[in-house]
Amino acid sequence: MGSAELRPLNQPGKPLPRAFYNRDPRSVGRDLLGKVLVRRQGRKLRAARIVEIEAYLGQGDPAAHAACGRTPRNAVLFGPPGHAYVYFIYGNHYCLNISCLPDGIAGCVLVRALEPLIGIEEMAQERGLSLNGIGDLRKLTSGPGRLAEAFSITRERDNGKDLTRINSDLFVADDHYTPSRVLTTVRIGIVKAASRPLRYVIAGNEFVSGLRRLIA
DNA sequence: TACATGATGCCCT
DNA sequence: GGGCATCATGTAG
Q1: Bridge partners of residue A214, in order along the sequence
Q2: Does the CB of A188 fall within 7 Å of any strand B atom?
Q3: How far is the C-alpha of A95 from the C-alpha of A214, rounded, in Å?
Q4: What nucleotide is nearest A108 when CA is compared to C1'?
């Protein structure tokens, strides 16, 4: 418990290499917990720790966007690993995924929740929120739609972006933080293949979404 | 060309 | 705890 404390992050670091993503989405998802999502915008920096991830396995996974094969929308999932797949859902929200596995094989992870570290004012501004306490901090990035808005992630701007490029304005870095304990649960908000244990969260982290659904 | 649906979040009770 | 906004996408016709 108590991992809600904000850890200092003195430098954004460099993007995780493509080899990190060139694996099974379950391994990638598990290993992304504790890593840091970074958005560079001119001199401004936004950074937040990944505390919740879901794996989507591609054509063998009925819940995955890639389940029915390649379409114009999901083409990124079939491309090389380490690229952003951003889609628009429910007429309101964007969600950030990162492609996994070699070129030609679909698979990805969905980033579901973050713990804000740097650029909190900018995130609040993007979310249209005024921060009046630590409780409000959760509203910034606790949920896939929320974190996308806080990081200004849109399909137009980010879909298909290579997150492993050294000068990418969106990437994931490693600041050598290791979660003390990780939980595996069922995925949230889906109907097909809803019982598969493919959601990974940092145990006790209060920025995790859907706290009621913890099973393990 | 029409229609059903969804990897969500917010606001109201 | 539940209803609803809101629209891109895919599939059927």
Answers
A1: none
A2: yes
A3: 21
A4: B7
